[in-house]
C-alpha cells in the first residue's frame, strides 16, 4: 500500500494513490487495488441540475443514493485493508483529497461513530454553483452516510449543516448514529436526507 508512505511535510503525489496502466486504459487505486475512473468535476453540477429539472425534489435524493452506494462499497473495499476505524477514516480523508474532492477533516467519535462532523473545505461538489438557500452536496452527504453506516455497522442520520453554496466558508456534514432507523422497516438512505432537509429548513426559518 504505497499511500502508507505518506509523510508529514512531504507533499503527496497523485501516483502515491493511483496507478495508470495506459496499455489497457485502466487506472487503479494503490490503496484498494480496485479500478477507478476520472470524472470531470463539472459533471456533478450538470447531473444534479438535470435531475432536479426532471425529478424536482427527488433529484437530490438520486444524487444522495448514488453517493450512498459509492460510499458504502468504497468503505467495504477499504475495510479489507484497514480494520481500525480511526486509521480508516483518516486514510479516507487522505484519499478524498487525492481524488480532488477537497480537504476533508472528520472530528468526533472516530472510534465508535456515534457522532461525527465532516468538514469539506474547497468542496468540489458545489464549486461554481450559484448561491443557494439549500445545501447542494447531496452526493457528498450520501457518500458520508454510506461510509459511516458501513464502517460503524449502524445506520446514521446525516445532513449538511453548512454548505459553501449557501455562503458558508466550507461544507459541513453531521452524521449521528440513529437507532430509530433500525426499527423502521421502510427506512431508506433517502429518508435520512428528507429528515436532514426538514431540519435545515427549520433551522434556517
Ligand atoms: Zn456543500
Primary descriptors:
7 strands, alpha+beta, three-stranded antiparallel beta sheet, Muramoyl-pentapeptide Carboxypeptidase, domain 2, 6 helices, globular, 2 domains, 42% helix, binds zinc ion, four-stranded antiparallel beta sheet, 205 residues
Overview of this protein structure:
There is one protein chain. The chain is α+β, with helices and mostly antiparallel strands and 205 residues long. The model is unreliable at 183-187 (pLDDT under 50). The protein contains six helices and seven strands, in the order E-E-E-H-H-H-E-E-H-E-E-H-H. Strands 4-5-7-6 form a four-stranded antiparallel sheet. Strands 1-2-3 form a three-stranded antiparallel sheet, with no helix packed on it. The N and C termini lie far apart (48 Å). It folds into two domains: 1-38, no CATH class; 41-204, 2-Layer Sandwich (Muramoyl-pentapeptide Carboxypeptidase, domain 2). Residues 123, 126, 135-137, 160, 163-165, 171 line the site of zinc ion. Zinc ion is lined by residues 123, 126, 135-137, 160, 163-165, 171.
